[in-house]
Amino acid sequence: MHIGFLGLGNMGGPMARNLLKAGHSLTVFDPFPQAVAALVEAGASAADSPAAVAKARVEVIITMLPTAEHVKQVYRGKDGLLANIGPGVLLIDSSTIDPLSTREVAKYALAQGNPMLDAPVSGGTGGAAAGTLTFMVGGPDSVFDQALPILSAMGKNIVHCGAAGNGQVAKIANNMLLGISMVGVAEAMALGVALGMEAKVLAGIINTSSGRCWSSEVNNPFPGVLENAPASRGYSGGFGSDLMLKDLGLATEAARHARQPVALGAVAQQLYQTFSLQGNGGLDFSAIIQLFRGEA
Amino acid sequence: MHIGFLGLGNMGGPMARNLLKAGHSLTVFDPFPQAVAALVEAGASAADSPAAVAKARVEVIITMLPTAEHVKQVYRGKDGLLANIGPGVLLIDSSTIDPLSTREVAKYALAQGNPMLDAPVSGGTGGAAAGTLTFMVGGPDSVFDQALPILSAMGKNIVHCGAAGNGQVAKIANNMLLGISMVGVAEAMALGVALGMEAKVLAGIINTSSGRCWSSEVNNPFPGVLENAPASRGYSGGFGSDLMLKDLGLATEAARHARQPVALGAVAQQLYQTFSLQGNGGLDFSAIIQLFRGEA
Amino acid sequence: MHIGFLGLGNMGGPMARNLLKAGHSLTVFDPFPQAVAALVEAGASAADSPAAVAKARVEVIITMLPTAEHVKQVYRGKDGLLANIGPGVLLIDSSTIDPLSTREVAKYALAQGNPMLDAPVSGGTGGAAAGTLTFMVGGPDSVFDQALPILSAMGKNIVHCGAAGNGQVAKIANNMLLGISMVGVAEAMALGVALGMEAKVLAGIINTSSGRCWSSEVNNPFPGVLENAPASRGYSGGFGSDLMLKDLGLATEAARHARQPVALGAVAQQLYQTFSLQGNGGLDFSAIIQLFRGEA
Amino acid sequence: MHIGFLGLGNMGGPMARNLLKAGHSLTVFDPFPQAVAALVEAGASAADSPAAVAKARVEVIITMLPTAEHVKQVYRGKDGLLANIGPGVLLIDSSTIDPLSTREVAKYALAQGNPMLDAPVSGGTGGAAAGTLTFMVGGPDSVFDQALPILSAMGKNIVHCGAAGNGQVAKIANNMLLGISMVGVAEAMALGVALGMEAKVLAGIINTSSGRCWSSEVNNPFPGVLENAPASRGYSGGFGSDLMLKDLGLATEAARHARQPVALGAVAQQLYQTFSLQGNGGLDFSAIIQLFRGEA
């Protein structure tokens, strides 16, 4: 198929490459010429604006953008996608943004004859490169079915979450819980060690008890507990604290609009904001344990 | 062996029965005569005070008491255990109390020649009856080895957590994390549903993603997600909210003495305290989701 | 002067009346015909759209609207104010909205030759009727001077807070602190009474000590402490809990964009959200004490 | 009168001096010989143990000790006060400790014929030296009347708070609110400045609005707002962050025993614990603003 792809950053770049590998032809856009050049070298055609992508007679357009503002501008701006595509072109937005903005854009797209899916991902840059991302997808059944083969070229776990916006809802609900769990594990490990336990012994007990969770088993924040976790390599790599902060912000802001209390989510957000203000936003989000050990 | 057992409540009663079943002879004490009578009927001998148990030439004494105050009084009171046993009697306290009190009592016991273990349990009344409890044990290696066959008559997972007090440390660190996780799952589920997702779909996504944890997989707080969880039977049975509140209190209080911050642990404690004040302390601790759904 | 006034609700209505009393001529708009009719009866002219107000050759336009969305639409919509006024018309927005939106609208207004002030108020419906509001004003010195006589007809304390948007900043910073203080007083009073003190005695001590604040001295949340406070009349009247919730939401959202932690502000927001979800949003914001006394 | 005084630290030392100045004769004890020597030089007699003070035929004994453990040991230990005084000796404990411990000790004292008051103070080392402390006093009316002239030699504001323990209740309720207010002011000032306001202008608005409180008016945490506040001299002097942390710990612990939620109190405690862990416990408690400005 002929696919348009906008947003060729750390995530979008490798995702686009996997589409090329799967035999699709791509027309790509990114404000950074180097990002475009790298994809062109890999076989894609370059476009110099969102409008140019839209006019390139693509059948599908995929976007991977940093914020809701970018999404709104790229889709609904004067030189944006919606003003320049014909009806029937399938739109897939893989950006992580708030569900309200997603639903607003999808409504406009649908009104002019373009089915749209929100399909945020998890799995990080590693998953993007390996084509093993999880896609959380919101939109009608038939549109989901249409998109499935394309998404399968970039990920291995494609989950239909319900109507438009529900991909975003699933993503921010899961990631809010992830942020809370990580802080919880950080507090439990720091407390246990402060009271005299060995970190590995405590982690072993937690991982076979009711406290077990992904954050304790797979990304334990205490250095030395897991050899391959970011905690054992200075918190480099992994999912950055500032990205967790962004997702917690999306969750609490969506909760505000839904008039839904999220007490621990809000406190976790404040803790990550404090940690970021101290200059640690680039560290893996498990580094939040430093705030509880006097190291931040 | 001849074993003394003090504290024959919902947990202690069935634990003592399992010791009888394993062929041990028991001398038991409890301030409630009915509790004593039930054990006597099952084959135990009755004693009318802690001192009387101590003087009954038991080789091992096990205690299962509600608070640190009870433990201090039973062990160190005038008519208590320590003043009335000979050297060499092995002491095992299975109460869940703060590690500082545990260590203080163990120090006194050891000073007069009585090795002591702290061995709090998890697994609830079901595990106590079935003999499948987990024991988290603090104390010297040799004493742990000595106690292992006895504990194995009451539980199936006997974990050595390190020196005296570490059984309590492991218990409260794990349960603090459990409380935080449960509130986190409650917030994430309530948020997702408020934003338009189906509860089962959301739970399915969380359970295969980075938000997965015991509280979402085994005891999901949203009614209808898990057929056999307390949430699907009006939050009856399970681990009561007031018990979770007690453990969160032990954790934050131990953290205070260790000068260790536990931000989410403290907020979770306040949420359970608020929930309890509204008259819900008897519901399973997953019922905290009602606070986030306007039902509490 | 000839003044346009948009938004004739509980606050805007009495404010507009005070302008009439001061001798100004008014052209007014509100989507509710009854609100318009009442002002017309008092001497104002009616307009049937924002554009109609703009075209009525007014020298000044004042807006008092519920949300940033309303402000953006009224000022920047197709049939809005900016598209229909001539240069030089002075714009004053007394809505309480986020500073970012305020600054964005003011920038557009200025670019087309219309000086604009943000001038949110405090003092409630009582102050609006009596003409004793406090105005917190953001914008250039010369524009502030120009607006001063007009604002003085509606309030008695007109404070210049600095450049555009700073009126909103002052309002949300003050009100976030107010919300935190109120919850703090509620917790301190509830704790003292739970521990055996008489509420009036405790309030007296706080009010002559370092805990003293507006919330303890003027609007003490404990029933019976202050005869004329909302707490002594079932929490009716006063500043509604849902209005406090709105302001706490504006504060935390502005903090998020500024990457500024506000830990207690965020928790206070969650407490008011929980209280609102329980159906108490219409009570005076001092009623939050019910959440701490098992009455909510 | 002949008065015994135990605990001659930063607070107790100057308080004892003021009693000497008022013409009382003193027998004093402190574990630090230098502290005793200084008072002997000023005219007091030295005792080498609490028991020795008790046996010195004093009519009144005043204690000023750091923790509840110290109070319990000094009063109820084998060589303590209660075991060695005759009936009728008036006991006044000015330590800041939890109300439960206070009430327990007072009950024992009364049972053996010694009336006892809890009389914690506020006003800091400056107030102790100047004799201008505030005393918050718990105990029976007649005993309060008896103590009044003695307390008046050390303070100028002597408040009767009700029955035994209520002095402590008033102190911790007020100081919990003080800690919450200070963090609230810190957040509001940091937020306002981050959003573009001048600190002095914002403080001025808050101090004439509903956000006003002791922490904003008298001890504003933003450097430069108040010339004579600790914030304008590197946060030296004043009331140390670790002392605030201690009082917040007493408040939340008393709340736990009373089953009383104190959400913001608990979060404020965690913030001060985090700040202390970063090595800032010696700074005035207004320095907590550094945690919100990326300076801690």
UniProtKB/TrEMBL annotation, chains A, B, C, D:
Catalytic activity, EC: 1.1.1.31
UniProt keyword list: Branched-chain amino acid catabolism, NAD, Oxidoreductase
UniProt pathway: Amino-acid degradation; L-valine degradation
GO biological process: L-valine catabolic process
3-hydroxyisobutyrate dehydrogenase-like NAD-binding domain segment(s): 165-291
GO molecular function: 3-hydroxyisobutyrate dehydrogenase activity; NAD binding; NADP binding
Domain (6-phosphogluconate dehydrogenase NADP-binding) ranges: 3-162
Record-linked SUPFAM superfamilies: 6-phosphogluconate dehydrogenase C-terminal domain-like, NAD(P)-binding Rossmann-fold domains
Keyword Phosphoprotein: no
Pfam family for this entry, one: NAD_binding_11
InterPro entries recorded: 3-OH-isobutyrate_DH-rel_CS, 6-PGluconate_DH-like_C_sf, 6PGD_dom2, 6PGDH_NADP-bd, HIBADH, HIBADH-like_NADP-bd, HIBADH-related, NAD(P)-bd_dom_sf
Gene3D superfamilies listed in its UniProt record: N-(1-d-carboxylethyl)-l-norvaline Dehydrogenase, domain 2, NAD(P)-binding Rossmann-like Domain
Residues annotated as transmembrane: none
The keyword Signal appears for this protein: no
Catalytic activity annotation: 3-hydroxy-2-methylpropanoate + NAD(+) = 2-methyl-3-oxopropanoate + NADH + H(+)
Catalytic center residues: K171
PROSITE patterns from the UniProt entry: 3_HYDROXYISOBUT_DH
Similarity-based family: Belongs to the HIBADH-related family.
Protein name, as recorded: 3-hydroxyisobutyrate dehydrogenase
